[in-house]
Structures are given as C-alpha cells and as structure tokens.
Amino acid sequence: MSCNLSKYAFDILKETGMVHCKLADCPMDPNYKLMIEQGEVFSNTKIYKRLVRKLIYVTITRPNVFCS
Q1: Residue 65 lies in a domain
Q2: Could you tell me the residue range of the domain that residue 56 belongs to?
Q3: What is the pLDDT of residue 41?
Q4: Model confidence over 13-59: pLDDT tens digits?
Q5: What's the pTM value of the predicted model, to 2 decimals?
Q6: How far is CA 6 from CA 2, 37, 65, in A?
Q7: Structural domain contains residue 8
Q8: Is there a domain that residue 28 lies in?
C-alpha cells in the first residue's frame, strides 16, 4: 500500500476511534437480521455517509487492502 493510502486508511481508523481494535474475519454475524425497530437511529447521517465514501475510495484504489 502506498504511503499516502496507508496514512489515509490510518486517519479513517483514528477518526472513528478504531485504531486499537482487534482484527476480525467477520466483524458482524452474517445471519443477523437488521430491523427498522431495532437500535438507535443515526443522529448525524452525514458522518456515516462520509465514512462510507472514504471506505469505498480505499477499496476501489486498493481492492486487496483488506485481504490478509
């Protein structure tokens, strides 16, 4: 991964408070059913959308960045 892309990915982790998180093969149970009535609604969807755009950029720029 290029130096700039590494910094970009690290900045995403810092921004989301995920720098010290452990790696996981699958961070969520793939059989978990999401329901409208469950959980809290995002109070600020702009932050969520911005994060998704950043992750899409990283995966398009380097599709194997998250592969082991």
Answers
A1: yes
A2: 1-20+41-68
A3: 72
A4: 898 888 998 877 777 777 887 777 777 777 788 888 998 999 888 88
A5: 0.59
A6: 6, 38, 9
A7: yes
A8: no
